[in-house]
Amino acid sequence: MFSPEGPSFPALVRQALSSVEHGYDLLADTFDATPFRTPDRVLDAVAEALEPLGPFDSGLDVCCGTGAGLAVLRSACAGPTVGVDFSAGMLAEARRAHPGATLVRADALALPFAPVFDLAVSFGAFGHFEPAAQRGLFAQVHASLCPGGTFAFPLPAPPRVGSTPYWTLWGFDAAMRVRNVLWRPPFVMYYRTFRLADVRARLTDAGFGVDLLPVRSLGTREDGSPRCRLVVARKSGRAGAPQTP
Question: The pTM is what?
Fold first, then answer.
C-alpha cells in the first residue's frame, strides 16, 4: 500500500492519535509517497475537463496540502495561483515543490480572501469536514470567488454496495467513529459523508448553480455510468454556463 519512501507504521499511529492539523504536520514529508495523495491521472483528467470551461484568471486550491492540485491551477489559470491549508508542515512541502505559488496558512472554514478568484479547486480534503461543516466550507469558497467564479472538484462514483471497497470504507469510517469517541483530540476523516445528492444540495444552499460533467478519461463502470464526475459549481454574476464536453 505504501512505497518504501512512505511513512512507517509507528508514524501512522502517531498521526492517527493526533489532531488533524498536527497529524498532517507529522506526515507532511512522506505524504506524497502514500495512497492518500490524489493520483496524477486524476489531476491530469481534471485539468483536461476544466480546459473548455475557461478561460480563468486567478485560481485557489482549497486545502492544498503538499500542492498537488496547484499544477491543475497552473494549467487552467492565466493569472496567479494560491494554495491554502492549515498545516504548516504540508505548506512547507508545497513551498518546496511549487516555489512560484502563493501559499497561505488558514482554516478553510475561515478563508481570509476577498471575492477575487475565478476558479477554486479542491482534491481529497472533503472527508475532513463533517456534513454540517461542509456547508460552512462551501459558503467560504463562494465568498472567495468573484461573480461568475467556478468551484470545481472530482467526485468518484461510490463503490458498489457489498463490494470489497464498500466494506473497506465502511470499516474505516466505523473505526474512526470509535476512535473519536474514545480519544481526544478528534481526527476527522470519513469517506462516506460526501454523497453526491447531499453535496449538490449543500452547494445550492451556499448560492452555487451546480452542473455535473463526466470525467471521460477516467472511464466508465459496468453499467455505463462514469467512474468519476467533475462537480462544477458556478457563482452567479456572469453570463454563460459550463457545457458538457
Answer: 0.87
